[in-house]
Design brief:
The protein is built from nine helices and 14 strands. With about 350 residues, it is an alpha/beta fold. Helix 2 runs parallel beside helix 3. The strands form three sheets. Strands 5-4-3-2-1-14 form a six-stranded mixed beta sheet. The longest helix is centred in the N-terminal third of the chain and has 21 residues. It is globular. The relative contact order is 0.15.
């Protein structure tokens, strides 16, 4: 259901607004400050456009654009002025918000980070993109897993970013941790349009989960982002699909309570349950083993494709980035622990 985009909100509904934000072109701290103000203005626009709106979602790169500039002077911090401005905007407009920043990392390339802020201005979820879009993106691989938080009106929210959504394991992890609404923010351009649509629908259906997905829109003079805001119901049916108009806000009402009901009551195609209970008609409780070689190999640190040695693109040199000379070391420091405690 969409409730006419949220105009006719039900008692158990959550109205979501997806902002197809104009693709920015940020080169200086002054540019960054201007884009921060633009985002805050759009939060106010969302509130005025749809007084019933519970959550406004901005796309990946809503501040920084697609330049892949990693200059320290335009990177953001968790407690920096950009995030504080977003917190104030949510508080002043009494609305939840999802935002994107490129986060300064003292130990390497920046993180591509998403933040969910509640209507009191408090940070409720902090996520670092697990799967940067290689070889194009230079971002440090995320080290915080996939957090889930309580959201408005009985919802449980998860956030993944752009290329993350091409891996079915990402949406499955969101659902496995309890999310009934998954947000997917992106900066994709037109060649990804078909993949964007089919993965959004598959992520919903395979996990009995609402997905709310949005890209940047318009051009920065070099790239054209596609907009294409898309909210998909838990059975894989698109509730609303957007367009390519910059700064257009696509809205719909979703029902997290019906997601929860389906997960309890569905027999046929209750895939998120049946995945871990294979063949429960034949054997009590179903088989709960792990027959998937790729999973056990990945967990043991020995993931290797049969054609692994023939893969040609394995670093970012084709996109102008130097080949890295360090291996990934998971972070277990106090800072990471503080993010995970939200």
């Amino acid at each position: 259901m969409s409730g006419l985009g949220g105009l006719n909100k039900s008692d158990k509904g959550v109205v979501i607004g997806l902002v197809q934000k104009q693709l920015p072109n940020v080169k200086t701290p002054e540019d960054l400050a201007q884009e921060t103000q633009n985002v805050c203005n759009l939060v106010k626009k969302a509130r005025n456009q749809m007084p019933t709106m519970d959550l406004v979602v901005f796309p990946e790169y809503c501040l920084h654009g697609l330049s892949m500039d990693t200059s320290d002077e335009i990177m953001c911090h968790r407690d920096g002025p950009e995030v504080q401005a977003f917190q104030n905007a949510c508080r002043e407009n009494h609305i939840w918000g999802c935002f994107s920043i490129m986060e300064y990392n003292p130990n390497g390339y920046p993180y591509n980070t998403g933040i969910i802020i509640d209507d009191n201005g408090d940070i409720k979820l902090f996520y670092r993109k697990l799967h940067p879009w290689v070889p194009v993106e230079p971002w440090e691989p995320g080290n915080l897993g996939i957090p889930v938080c309580d959201g408005p009106n009985g919802s449980k929210l998860a956030l993944i970013i752009c290329h993350d959504g091409m891996f079915p394991e990402m949406a499955r992890e969101c659902a496995y941790k309890g999310a009934n609404i998954m947000l997917r923010t992106a900066g994709y351009t037109a060649p990804i349009r078909h993949s964007w649509k089919v993965t959004n629908q598959a992520n919903s259906f395979c996990n009995l989960m609402v997905t709310a997905n949005v890209c940047l829109a318009g051009t920065d003079g070099t790239f054209n982002s596609m907009g294409e805001g898309m909210i998909v119901d838990f059975d894989g049916t698109p509730i609303v699909e957007g367009n390519g108009i910059p700064d257009e806000i696509i809205t719909a009402e979703v029902r997290p309570d019906l997601v929860d009901e389906a997960r309890i009551n569905w027999g046929v195609e209750n895939n998120i349950y049946q995945f871990g209970h294979r063949g429960y008609v034949a054997v009590k409780g179903g088989a709960m083993d792990c027959p998937y070689t790729y999973m056990t190999d990945l967990a043991e640190g020995k993931y290797k494709l049969p054609w692994e040695d023939s893969v040609r693109v394995t670093d970012g040199t084709s996109c102008g980035f130097p080949a890295p000379d360090r291996t990934y070391q998971p972070t277990n420091d106090e800072e990471a622990a503080s993010y995970l405690s939200l």
